[in-house]
Specification:
This protein is α/β, with parallel strands linked by helices. The chain contains 44 helices and 27 strands. The strands form 8 sheets. It has a 5-stranded antiparallel β-sheet with strand order 5-6-12-8-9. It has a 4-stranded mixed β-sheet with strand order 1-2-4-3, with helices on one face.
């Protein structure tokens, strides 16, 4: 099936947003965070409300299926389909209005929930339902899935907070769904209102009889919201009407709120244009009590008792996640608060305005309850689940945690029984699962381990799903309680609700979407849950032989498939993913790049054999044989461009829960790609800048002078494709070695220093400061005869030369230190961390030695703040001697860390690493340091110097860094930056000369050194 040319032509006439029908765009939107994959017909990005309306109207006219989409973070497959995708997340993201008095907000569908919450927080308000994916989930998707989260016992579900919705129905007509007083409905109600009334009248009894006993239900449509009825209610639901009557949902007999029907309808009833939502007061204080149990089931058995204390959340954290978090040395310190080896923990939260009342409540839970009071302590408790889940999700194997029975909600009195029986079901299928999350609401996320690339795994998928469904129904629970039905569970809807309620749901669907154009293939006409799998028995991946070692990732194909689509890379905070943050384009997210690479290297039966798929195969041929494929291959170019805009900042390596390392994949792709494509001259200039700088240094003045001449720049910049607005770094006069300044120093230890091209030739005062600081601290410095660890070669994909360079550096280190005991230090993070990261991948045959080297490779700041043999941090050897350091006025300083510093995991011994180490050094010498909450600066090595990347580079800088630096200058604060590129970028973007922490430290200790 493809889009008719007439439809596309007419749509283009009425649409100002983008319309993308190419193979790459279809590949990008063929997955969400589920196990499914369906290639869409195309993707359109409405820029205005009129665009959105025009798309739906024309789709109705030409009978084109459409699928509104937000962040695509759905776990059940409802955000994919054979339809024209309307991606509302890029432009339709307005916060139309917040009314603090009425406690309401009106939003467009693409607004990200965390943005709404940030705006509402200014008025002490928040949106009650709190899905864990709030940092990227859009309100369209939150409503589409009837999302909720850890605090559902306090706030219910999204349906409970949906006051009004402006929608477009399947025939293209506009409607406003809100509260309707029954007697006020006119004599000629719309087809949709008539259907709602008829359902209430004719099917009321069937709904009462067949809806689950759990209030936390999001399977199918919200027909129960048409009736003032429910078998159970959230323990603390605070709506006046519910409190008065004990009824949930909170529906008065004489009204119908049609807006609630949109909640959980997964884009199948209407396209939401705007919605007005209820906001709730944000609790001022929280406190946690942590209880241990001997089994998950025993913990769940205790939940009804705990609910009697009126907590705001009760979350289950299983032993598996605790052990995984404890098992990684870097995280051991973070989970040190867990006593012993409990099989399960319940984290019980109380929230409110009076801390003393909360503390009393938590004490009553159990005498041995561990109490987390401070914000830091509470963050550490929650981090166990986060860290454990991340590790669980990133296991490099074909058998992975699968979401399909992860959304059951059971009446809490029977939750323990449910857990015991699901454990039996899983054991009978020779597998196991992590059970975690919202015990308070009877909703446990169960991620069973299955290998869906094998027939047995796919058969278990169905068999476990059917057995769990039977169990859930027997216990009065619901199969979908916040993640929706999608493809994973919609097949079972008629079985869950029976034919009568099925008929009522169909009646509603027909009234809203008479031609079945809105997200077809979901809800009542969904396909079997074991079809359309992203992987599957016939899945085959074909990759080239990589240069880098991917053994840790289950091979190169495993590294590409590591992305499970959760979409954390679409958040707009932290480092990951700067190019997405700046452009909001799916193809520029880590997920987008992973999806394109996967499309390129796999041959899934579920992808249609279309021109696009042929293009994928042909690019693979290209990657295998130099001459086989035409250069204008559209998809191949898309993959190239998506990776070209990856800044290789390693944000994903640190922040992606599945540990996707796109920088490494980019290097490997470039290496293979350029076997058959001509490189730009510029790549050679940047990759070999070290040897070129060595050659040029003796003529530094001449080179500097000529690069200042307009005509030279006018000639050189276009030849090399350099940005006109940038200046390449200038050669600086070389400084003499400083050792002579410390004739009396007694060395108490030795280190090896890896110099780098940038600080040696262009900013030698930094190298000098490093030597000064080390020498002053009694550290003898042996300088390696080679410059740099080869970062510039690696970042341009010159992997074979990089490997040879790594061998040479490695040999030189061994020659200076045959016993392999001396620490190896570096100044420039991108260079030094190459020893910790890429050397392991470049030299797999020397793995043990490379690991040993990685464990003793430190940035100078990291080394100075670490304890020496006397158990005191080395920098204190100087500052202790300095009388007046504490008496000096401390100056305020803002520090921007290098991306690779931010990507470093915590050290096993708890000593500061990365930007925290740079900050610690500066604090020790007397600065009042604030770390700038910035991500990547945007320069990213050579990236920002390249003509075609200049604009994006500046956009990334403007996301957070530049505005904060400008503000710092206005307030008279100094700015420090650790990376050489970061300093250039700050200078170019703000005119501020940021200085290196080592230079500032030496200056501070001026009288001493
Ligand atoms: C790691 C992880 C954790 C999660 N945790 C939670 C959780 O705690 N609680 C929870 O509820 N969910 C959770 N989810 C599921 C999901 O993230 C949320 O339900 C989220 O609200 C979906 O938002 P989205 O923007 O990604 O929607 P999408 O996935 O893009 O879309 C969701 C549905 O809404 C429909 N839709 C989107 N826009 C519109 C529109 N304009 N009009 C009509 N329909 C529309 C789509 O067609 C689709 O059917 C989690 C997911 C992941 C990966
Ligand atoms: S790259 Fe990581 S964060 Fe992004 S979708 Fe994939 S797994 Fe999730
Ligand atoms: S390395 Fe940086 S820019 Fe590239 S995908 Fe990862 S987070 Fe995005």
């Amino acid at each position: 099936m493809s889009l008719s040319p007439d439809f596309v032509a007419e749509l283009r006439k009425h649409f100002i947003g983008d319309i993308c029908l190419d193979a790459a765009s279809r590949a990008l939107y063929s997955t969400d965070a589920s196990i499914y994959q369906i290639e869409p017909l195309g993707v359109a990005f409405p820029k205005t409300q009129d665009d959105l309306h025009a798309a739906v109207e024309l789709a109705a006219k030409y009978r084109v299926p459409i699928l509104p989409r937000g962040a695509g973070s759905s776990l059940a497959g409802q955000a994919i389909g054979q339809a024209l995708i309307l991606d509302c997340s890029r432009w339709l993201d307005g916060l139309v209005d917040i009314d603090p008095e009425a406690r309401t907000a009106t939003v467009e569908p693409g607004l990200v929930l965390s943005r709404l919450n940030a705006a509402a927080a200014k008025h002490g308000l928040t949106f009650g339902p709190d899905p864990a994916s709030a940092e990227r989930a859009t309100l369209g998707g939150v409503i589409g899935n009837n999302a909720t989260g850890a605090h559902s016992i306090l706030y219910g579900m999204t349906a409970d907070h949906l006051l009004l919705a402006d929608v477009i129905l399947g025939d293209g007509s506009l409607a406003t769904w809100g509260v309707v007083e029954l007697p006020a409905i006119g004599s000629q109600p719309s087809a949709f209102v008539s259907a709602a009334l008829r359902i209430r009248e004719k099917y009321g009894e069937a709904i009462k009889k067949n809806y689950p006993q759990s209030w936390r239900n999001s399977a199918g449509y919200r027909l129960n919201y048409l009736l003032p009825w429910s078998p159970s209610a959230p323990p603390q639901w605070s709506d006046d009407w519910s409190l008065a009557t004990g009824h949930y949902p909170p529906v008065k007999p004489h009204i119908i709120n049609l807006a609630t029907l949109l909640a959980g309808s997964e884009g199948t009833l209407a396209v939401m244009r705007r919605a007005t939502l209820n906001l709730v007061p944000k609790p001022k204080h929280t406190i946690l009590g942590v209880l241990s149990y001997n089994s998950n089931a025993e913990a769940c058995d205790d939940v009804p008792r705990l609910l009697g204390f009126n907590p705001s959340a009760v979350e289950l954290v299983p032993q598996m996640l605790i052990r995984l978090a404890k098992g990684i040395p870097a995280y051991t310190a973070q989970v040190g608060w867990v006593r012993g080896d409990p099989v399960a923990l319940l984290v019980v939260e109380f929230s409110g305005d009076r801390p003393e009342v909360l503390k009393e409540a938590v004490k009553r839970l159990r005498s041995d309850a561990l109490i987390a009071e401070s914000v830091e302590e509470q963050a550490r408790v929650w981090s166990v689940r986060k860290v454990g889940l991340g590790i669980f999700d990133s296991q490099p194997a074909d058998a992975r945690p699968v979401a399909f029975i992860e959304d059951c909600a059971i009446p809490v009195e029977r939750l323990g029984e449910f857990v015991r029986e699901v454990e039996n079901i899983l054991a009978a299928h020779n597998t196991y699962a992590a059970f975690y999350a919202h015990a308070s609401a009877g909703c446990l996320h169960i991620r069973a381990i299955l290998d869906l690339k094998r027939g047995e795994g796919v058969r278990s998928l169905r068999s476990i799903a059917e057995a769990t469904l039977a169990l859930t129904l027997r216990l009065g629970g619901s199969m979908s309680s916040e993640h929706g039905d999608g493809i994973a569970r919609a097949e079972f809807l008629r079985q869950i609700y029976g034919p009568e309620v099925g008929e009522a749901m169909q009646l509603l669907k027909n009234a809203a979407d008479p031609h079945n154009l809105l997200n077809p293939g979901k809800m009542l006409d969904a396909p079997p849950m074991d079809t359309h799998l992203r992987y599957g028995e016939d899945y085959r991946a074909e990759v080239w032989a990589p240069v880098l070692d991917f053994a840790r990732n289950n091979g190169l194909a495993g590294a590409i498939q590591q992305c499970n689509g959760q979409g954390v890379c679409r958040k707009d905070t932290g480092v990951m993913c700067p190019s997405f943050q700046a452009t909001r384009e799916e193809g520029n997210s880590t997920r987008g790049r992973a999806n394109l690479l996967r499309a390129l290297t796999s041959f899934p039966v579920s992808l249609q054999v279309t021109k696009g798929s042929e293009a994928i195969s042909s690019l693979m041929r290209l990657l295998r044989r130099r001459d086989a494929v035409p250069r204008n291959d559209a998809l191949g170019e898309s993959v190239y461009h998506a990776l070209d805009l990856c800044l290789a900042c390693k944000g994903c390596k640190a922040e992606c829960p599945s540990g996707v390392d796109m920088a490494k994949l980019k290097y490997e792709f470039q290496h293979e790609y350029y076997k058959s494509h001509r490189r730009k001259l510029r790549d050679h200039l940047f990759a070999y800048i070290g040897p070129l700088a060595q050659l040029g240094a003796p003529f530094g003045k001449l080179v500097n002078w000529s690069m200042e001449q307009r005509f030279v720049r006018g000639l050189v910049n276009p030849i090399f494709g350099l940005a006109e607005k940038r200046e390449l770094p200038k050669f600086a006069p070389q400084l003499s070695m400083p050792a002579s300044r410390f004739p009396d120093i007694e060395y108490c230890e030795s280190v090896i220093l890896l110099r780098d091209t940038f600080t040696h030739f262009f900013e030698p005062e930094i190298e000098r400061a490093a030597l000064d600081m080390l020498t002053a601290c009694g550290v003898e410095v042996k300088v390696l005869p080679y410059f740099s660890a080869g970062r510039t070669l690696i970042s341009k994909g010159f992997l074979e030369p990089a490997r040879r360079h790594a061998e040479r550096v490695f040999d030189a280190i061994q020659k200076l230190d045959p016993e392999g005991k001396l620490p190896v230090l570096g100044i420039e993070p991108s260079e030094l961390y190459t020893l910790r990261d890429e050397f392991l991948d470049l030299l797999p045959e020397r793995r043990a030695d490379a690991e040993a080297l990685a464990s003793r490779a430190w940035l100078v700041e990291e080394y100075l703040v670490r304890p020496g043999a006397d158990n005191k941090s080395r920098i204190l050897r100087v500052t202790d001697k300095l009388q007046d350091i504490s008496s000096q006025n401390s100056s305020k300083l803002l520090l921007h860390g290098h991306c690779y510093q931010k990507a470093q995991p915590p050290a096993a011994d708890g000593c500061p690493v990365g930007q925290n180490a740079s900050a610690e050094l500066l604090r020790t010498v007397g600065y009042e340091v604030k770390i700038i909450p910035s991500g990547c600066c945007g320069m990213a090595g050579a990236f920002g110097y390249e003509d075609e990347h200049y604009e994006l580079s500046m956009q990334v800088g403007e996301l957070a860094l530049f505005p904060i630096v400008r503000e710092a200058m206005r307030s008279g604060n100094e700015v420090s930056a650790v990376g050489t590129s970061c300093r250039s970028q700050i200078a170019d973007g703000t005119g501020v000369a940021a200085r290196h922490p080592l230079v500032l430290s030496v200056q501070r200790l001026g009288s001493m050194v």
